[in-house]
Amino acid sequence: MAIPTVLDTDIGHDVDDVWALAFLLRCPELDVKLITTSTGDTVYRARLVAKILELMGCTHIPIGIGIPLDDNPHTHDAWLGDYDLDQYSGTILPDGVGAICDTIMQADDKVSLICIGPLPNIAAALARQPEITDKATFIGMHGSIRRGYLDAPKPMREFNVKMHALACRAVFEASWEKVITPLDTCGNVILDGERFAAIRQAAERNGPASAAGITMDNHLAWFEAVRAWPILKTLDPLKQSSILYDLVAVYLGFANDLLDMESLPIVITPDGKTLVDDSGEVVLCATNWRDKDAFLDLVTQRLIGEAL
């Protein structure tokens, strides 16, 4: 039976959230009950989610609008165009935090709460309905245990943690089962070579409403919007993806056999560090890959809809 799932995402800045959403919608192991948008312009983010759901025939999934904190550039405007939430034939819930609470509390089975952005929505949901910890597993793309960005040999302050460190701290201190992919395992996920070529070919073959078409069109339009980012100077967008951090969190929503998992006591500091400390709550951390190639093959197969 598919696992009831809620996705909380800051989609619309880095493009990895689009890849993660398309992958999520192609995973039969997960029954997506709700998608909420986190931080920044959460209405803009909801528009992006809505257009993707519309194209992929998934308008049965409600969209919750989260807390609009901070701001960052609308890097997906070229692909989004003039798409308006009024066009979405599904349900738009203006109180995303309440929607998280209701969806989890009303679920018959334990929910995979997959979070691929900063965590103010989740901290607010915990404050409003503490009992969600009994009915959900928190699964996050958060932190840095032993390696940092670009496989740096030391931990770093990871974006999803440091942006709202106190919210993250509240989520990690809550008494639910917690599973994360830190930068150790998600900070080196790239689709290139034959896999990327297969996705490009599937996009051309299956069109812009397909999972491959949506990811590829967003990838190329996003690259044009952010090509001045220093990290992208050596990236050829016709041959490889950017770093797709969030894909690993989606995978952890239903499996972990391709990863080495460690139960570690984790503390989130006020300045956004992720520390292994005996005073912390135990978190199941994906710290190394067992078979990264098999994971990349799985993602590619799901996105193109064919066996490799």
Task: Summarize the structure in words.
It is a single chain. The protein has helices at 16-25, 42-55, 77-80, 96-106, 120-128, 159-162, 165-173, 183-186, 193-206, 211-226, 247-252, 292-304; strands at residues 3-9, 30-37, 63-65, 92-93, 111-116, 136-140, 177-180, 259-268, 274-276, 281-289. With 308 residues, it is an alpha/beta fold. The protein has one domain: Inosine-uridine Nucleoside N-ribohydrolase, Chain A (Alpha-Beta Complex), CATH 3.90.245.10. It has a 10-stranded mixed sheet, sandwiched between helices. Helix 1 (16-25) packs antiparallel against helix 10 (211-226), helix 5 packs across helix 7 and helix 9 crosses helix 10. The longest helix is centred in the last third of the chain and has 16 residues, at 211-226. The protein starts with a strand and ends with a helix. The model has no long low-confidence stretch (mean pLDDT 96).
List keywords for this structure.
alpha/beta, single chain, 308 residues, ten-stranded mixed beta sheet, Inosine-uridine Nucleoside N-ribohydrolase, Chain A
Seen as an oligomer or otherwise, the chain set is single chain
CATH architectural designation? Alpha-Beta Complex
Order of helices and strands: EHEHEHEHEHEHHEHHHHEEEH
Kindly give the count of domains. Answer: 1
Using DSSP, what is the number of strands? Answer: 10
Number of helices: 12
Helix content: 25-40%
CA distance, first residue to last residue: 25 Å
Strand order of the largest sheet: 4-3-2-1-5-6-7-10-8-9
Characterize the overall form: globular
CATH fold-level assignment? Inosine-uridine Nucleoside N-ribohydrolase, Chain A
Mean of all residue-level pLDDT scores = 96
CATH class: Alpha Beta
CATH superfamily: Ribonucleoside hydrolase-like
Radius of gyration: 18 Å
Which structural class fits the helix and strand makeup?
Answer: alpha/beta
